[in-house]
């Protein structure tokens, strides 16, 4: 049986933990300094709260935290991993750029543990539900294969460390990037008296986009403030030589504007929702 | 019976002309200074080549020319329309910004003719084929209704002059804009070792986008050089206060780069085509 440690336990971490528990793994976590909500989620998922020294004796350690916490978590774990005899493989599964993933690897360089780059695409698993796709890169020896044995939709990439992080970013280009474009389109049309005709034309010639936009807009508005940084991360990933970086700086500003509007009462947001409904 | 004049005869103009002839209209054109290809297309479509003075006696005059020629065509026709007793309604159906449409209207201000703003969305009609959508704005008296009687898919907008031109631009945001995003995504993935995984992930979670991209890329590459200006037109239309304008300046540069690559042998283009094929 494999022992897997997951740090920390947001909805995705808890969901992945639950899925691995259902798949027969022992799943550990460490809840030092976490609030009651994290604690509740971890208990419900069947995760065992243990000290960092025990986390460091697992077979695999998964880091599933907000992007801004990825490096700090690696730094916090480094001493325990260095002191451990069992040297688990450390998998950073966070939505970070390949550059940030390199900083995670650097933080663990002295630990003696293998560090693998990963990313998760899909929704957190529900009880007895489907696993999201769990991509790993920089794992030529397939050290993370036990994840598949315990039910994760494990997808090893034939690619070096960093490629999984890159995959997560490029994938967001066609989901959150397209949503930014669509929001700009609807608002531009409404502002210029072309809203009703645009809805009718999309229904006629792009029906699959209509359903997509109608679903994407209400989902996006409460998250717009978070997506600002994600769009800038994509721009940085593409780099100054790629003109597409400018598209993502623009997308960041589109989300920035929608987030500010939401703070101020949500007038633009309401226009956007009304303008994204399918034509009747 | 309605007499309609169409200037000039690219594939769209000839196709619309053919469709109206099939719908029972008399369709005129003027081929002064046009090449043998335009002449052939006009003859095949059943259009009659007449002097401008006779064009100016039609019931409706349609301008269907490249964006850069819209104002010049209006200026060229202005004297004949001013001299005409029958005062046809002039419809600018070109892919121009509302601002440029205003310049067309200004050029005809002294002619005594009503000027209507229009746009065409869809492919040129084939023999006995389907009409594209023909939107008009700024036509409260429905002067252009005879177009529907002769088979065009006529769509009057309850909106002022300029809204139809705006519609064409916002519609291009979600077709050519999304294609620019998709191209940037595929090239970013290939450059970072994530191409194969991206194709697999899109096939798994975004199958409708896969088909869309596979079709869009080979269609786009030979036209990328033209789309540069279209993307900048959208940026200008959105205006400096709309952060989405930056997305379209970025899209213009993406197309600029692909157009330059094509001139230089098409290495990027080949990567893009290979990376946009559905995963097997």
TrEMBL record, chains A, B:
<dbReference type="Pfam" id="PF03446">
    <property type="entry name" value="NAD_binding_2"/>
</dbReference>
<feature type="domain" description="Phosphogluconate dehydrogenase NAD-binding putative C-terminal">
    <location>
        <begin position="189"/>
        <end position="258"/>
    </location>
</feature>
<dbReference type="GO" id="GO:0050661">
    <property type="term" value="F:NADP binding"/>
</dbReference>
<dbReference type="InterPro" id="IPR008927">
    <property type="entry name" value="6-PGluconate_DH-like_C_sf"/>
</dbReference>
<dbReference type="InterPro" id="IPR036291">
    <property type="entry name" value="NAD(P)-bd_dom_sf"/>
</dbReference>
<dbReference type="InterPro" id="IPR013328">
    <property type="entry name" value="6PGD_dom2"/>
</dbReference>
<dbReference type="InterPro" id="IPR006115">
    <property type="entry name" value="6PGDH_NADP-bd"/>
</dbReference>
<protein>
    <submittedName>
        <fullName>NAD(P)-dependent oxidoreductase</fullName>
    </submittedName>
</protein>
<dbReference type="InterPro" id="IPR015814">
    <property type="entry name" value="Pgluconate_DH_NAD-bd_C"/>
</dbReference>
<dbReference type="Pfam" id="PF09130">
    <property type="entry name" value="DUF1932"/>
</dbReference>
<feature type="domain" description="6-phosphogluconate dehydrogenase NADP-binding">
    <location>
        <begin position="4"/>
        <end position="141"/>
    </location>
</feature>
